[in-house]
Amino acid sequence: MILYVLRRLGGALLLTVLVTLITFLLLSTSFDSVAASRLGTSATPEAVDAMKAELGLDRPVLVQYFDWLSHAVQGDFGVSLFTSEPVGDAVSSRLSVTLSVITAALLCTALASVALGVLAAWRGGVIDRVAQGASLVGFLIPSLLTAIVLVYVLAIKTDILPATGYTPLADNPGQWLASIMIPVIALSLHGMASLTSQVRGRMIDELRKDYVRTLRTRGIPTRSIVLRHALRNAAGPALTVLSMEFIAMFGGALVIEKVFALPGFGSYAFDSSLQGDIPVIMGVTLFAVLLVVGVNLIVDLLNGWLNPKARIH
Amino acid sequence: MPTLSRSRRIRRYTPVAVLTSCVLLVTAGCGGSTDNSAAGTDMLSLAVLGTPNSFDVTQLADGQQAYVWGSVYDTLLYADNKGQIQPNAAESWSYSEDGRTLALKLRTGMKFSNSHVVNAGVVKASLDHVRATPGTQQNALGSIETIEAPDETTIVLKLKHPDASLLPSLTMGAGAVADPATMKDPSAALNPIGSGPYVLDKSTVNGSTYVLKKRKDYWNAAAYPFDTVEVKVMGDRTAAVNALQAGQLNAGTVESTQVDQVKSAGFGVTVVPATSVGTLVLADRDGTVVKPLGDLRVRQAINMAFDRQKMATQFLRGVGQPTEQIVNPKSPSHDPALDTTYPYDPAAAKRLLAEAGYPDGFSVTMPSLFFSKPFEPTIAQALKDIGINVTWEPVPAQNNTIALTSGKYAMYFTADGLGAVAKDFKNYFSPEGYRNPFHTQNTEISGLLQKASAEQDPATAAEAFKQVNAYGTKNAWYAPVFYVGTSWVTKKGITYLGDGSSTFSTIRAFGVSN
After folding, report:
1. What CA–CA distances, in Å, run from B337 to A104, A228, B292?
2. How far is B48 from chain A (nearest CA, A)?
């Protein structure tokens, strides 16, 4: 298992370096533009050259990249070229917003999907038809549309929840929950669609297998068979779907953050890309890669723990 | 499969029920804690589309970001809601006869928020820092040769040449005064020390919400009716409209299609007819890159290709109007007669192209920018109708500035905010102006611009700039298409005082009413 973990960590490290290097090489074509943007429309060519020199953008690209990398591994991610905000602080504060929304949405998605999927497979009948219908509707209705309807009903018409903005958990837990409630519901409903189908399908497969019949003949209670044996075997693929859902939500966070004016990671990455804010783009790229790689690693390790056969791949 | 008893069935459904109840309970329980921060009129709460720049005084930007830094920093002068330049930190000013010396008299008793005194030496140090540091405002002070502070309250700016754009610049970012004792400290970029009417509150979340608290010891406190100003960054107009309707904002701009929606929600609406101008800049007036553009008849033909009224109606839906000039219609240098110079007439345009030697038209490559995309099909079709084929070349957003100033594109479509005429004309007509990327110059326009820049009397200067305006339109240095307006919506008790005469983003454009 240790070798498996080390192999995965090495791959993750290599991937991180490659992605950040490619990002930096792509950004290097815009160094002149970045210096000009920082100076505004009236900048003279001399001022642009002076700004490039001041920012160190006139050095060889690889020198700049390794300079950035060496600072980054020490926890120094530089400052935004436009707002002067330290990138590390900015990314972590914005990441906390996005992660709080996504984590809550994933938790709701996982709980509801497992409950619905297991019940649908186990009990069948009306519950199964409701679960399948709900999945279909969840697939068909985009999160954004759900969010817009929820804002209209819960914020504008009834004034129950705020329409926009974010309150940090540490400031006021109640307001924090209120501020993320609508995005969480919107994301969860969509996420539940794919995960419920997955759990239901896998559970039906498991419940039809020979070992279940054997367990029943031994007098093991149905509840134990379903939750302890069948669900554990079905959990691996469900975890993979959940991790993909996480990455999809993370990638799609921009839309939700824009609609709810949440100061999150997605909108920060988008705005900094428009400006060509090199330190910020590098910072968000690094954190995004680490996050995605980290989630995949956790899922792989969990799968390895749930199913020892997975460790040999 | 065995059936379950009622009690066991209830237990099985518990997770779903708990989740549902949790959502409903939290939803109901949060009714009293929603962030309706903009309920009263002691607070002005508005949204801006983008994150403000650094508060470093050399990096201030004059767009919507000025709502934030303009509340923290005093500017030497101030443009009122009618666009007239008024005293501010400087209580008076005067030019020498030759227009090359500007003397400003500072008012006394001003202090920075850290209690340091504002005097002439401090103002000189602040301006010198901006002049010496590459940044967004450096160019605006480019005509200054030296700055002197002969006594505690007098600042003397010696100029290389007369510069009519200097006074308007001093009402904006270039005229902001920072405390020299703190302005070079890296912390000033996020925690500025200014002598303005507000201080940045510690509840500010950089990049998201800027909270400004009024200073009780400010010399002109009566001009600022709001105890608190909250500026929220909302890149999406729908989010801003939702926030307005939910009571989280009490002022903001909306799209013309959203006006009825907010009106029915009880908001007042003030339409400012022109805040920017959509223009096809015909930059290559000497035909360096695209030879046909060197011929006046070709540039005039392009001006006749656009059905401006139809474009204004279709694109702007009532918040905007057609134009053939780049001057703010509220400016005394605006000339309504110029708006009939180029009536829509594709047939006549084709004849002009033929006369110029291009009966089969020609091809041109234009930059496709993120803000020009919606207009590109219409512009391309209009030009194609007279024989000009356009190829759109995608330009990444971060490269927009340099693409338009590099001299690569012979013509391009852009939208410029309408500022003071002296500043705008410097950008369009001086050889180093950023809307003159091919550095076109000739004796006629240079003479007109110099004469206008040297005029001291406002009325005479306005007339002189009117001649520059006429030159630009008649010589087709550009093909303006429409003015773009803005719809301001405000909650009951708050009013928007501007009419478009001044387009600088200052919170002094907001007042309170019964």
Report:
1. 62, 85, 27
2. 11
Is A263 in Cβ contact with B16 (below 8 Å)? no
- CA distances, A212 to each of A224, A226, B9, B356, B396 (Å): 11, 9, 21, 88, 58
The amino acid at B129: H
Helix A87-123 / helix A125-140 crossing angle, nearest 10 deg: 150
Nearest to B399 among A33, A119, A267 (CB): A33
CB contact under 8 A, A82 and B51: yes
Residue A54 touches chain B, beta carbons under 8 Å: yes
A50 in reach of chain B (CB within 8 A): yes
Mean pLDDT (whole number) for B453-473? 92
Distance of alpha carbon A263 from alpha carbon B205, whole angstroms: 9
Residues B430, B333 contacting (CB under 8 angstroms): no
Angle, helix A173-207 to helix A87-123, in steps of 10 degrees: 40
pLDDT of residue B13: 40
pLDDT at B190 over 60: yes
Contact list, A91 vs chain B (CB under 8 Å): none
Interface test with A, best of B402, B404, B424, B430 (most A CBs within 10 A): B402
| Shortest distance, CA A123 to any CA of chain B (angstroms) | 8
Q: Interface pTM (ipTM) of the complex?
A: 0.81
Helices (H), strands (E): how many in chain B?
14, 21
The H or E element that residue A8 is part of is helix A2-27
Token look-up 């935004």 returns: A80
Strands B209-214, B228-233: pairing kind = antiparallel
Query: DSSP 3-state assignment of B299?
Result: helix
Cα separation, B342 vs B50, whole angstroms: 36
Q: How many angstroms separate the CA atoms of A279 and B73, rounded? A: 28
Number of CB atoms found within 10 A of residue B340's CB: 8
| Mean pLDDT computed over every residue of chain B | 89
Q: How close does chain A come to B351, measured CA to CA in Å?
A: 37
CA proximity to A226, closest of A119, A111, A109, A116 = A119
Query: From first to last of its 313 residues, what are the pLDDT tens digits of chain A?
Result: 677 778 878 888 898 999 999 999 999 988 888 888 888 777 777 888 888 888 889 999 999 999 999 999 999 999 999 888 999 999 999 999 999 999 999 999 999 988 888 888 888 888 888 888 888 888 888 888 888 899 989 998 888 899 998 988 888 999 999 999 999 998 888 888 888 888 888 888 888 888 888 888 888 888 888 888 888 888 877 888 888 888 888 887 788 888 898 999 998 999 898 888 999 999 999 999 998 888 888 887 777 777 666 665 5
Question: DSSP character for B441?
Answer: -
DSSP reduced 3-state for B191: coil
Token pair of B487, please?
A: 């719809």
Is the CB of A36 less than 8 angstroms away from the CB of B402? yes
Asked if the Cβ–Cβ distance from A43 to B139 is below 8 Å, we say yes
**How many CA within 13 A on the CB side of residue B163?**
24
Quote the pLDDT of residue A34: 85
Kindly report the nearest CA distance between residue A184 and chain B, in angstroms. Answer: 10
Q: Which of A83, A92, A284 to mutate to test the interface with B (most CBs of B within 10 A)?
A: A83
pLDDT tens track for B346-374: 999 999 999 999 999 999 999 999 889 99
What's the half-sphere exposure (Cβ side, CA atoms, 13 Å) at B331? 27
Q: Assess whether pLDDT exceeds 60 at residue B32.
A: no
Look at B50 and A108 and tell me if their CB atoms are within 8 Å: no
Cβ of B15 within 8 Å of Cβ of A155? The answer is no
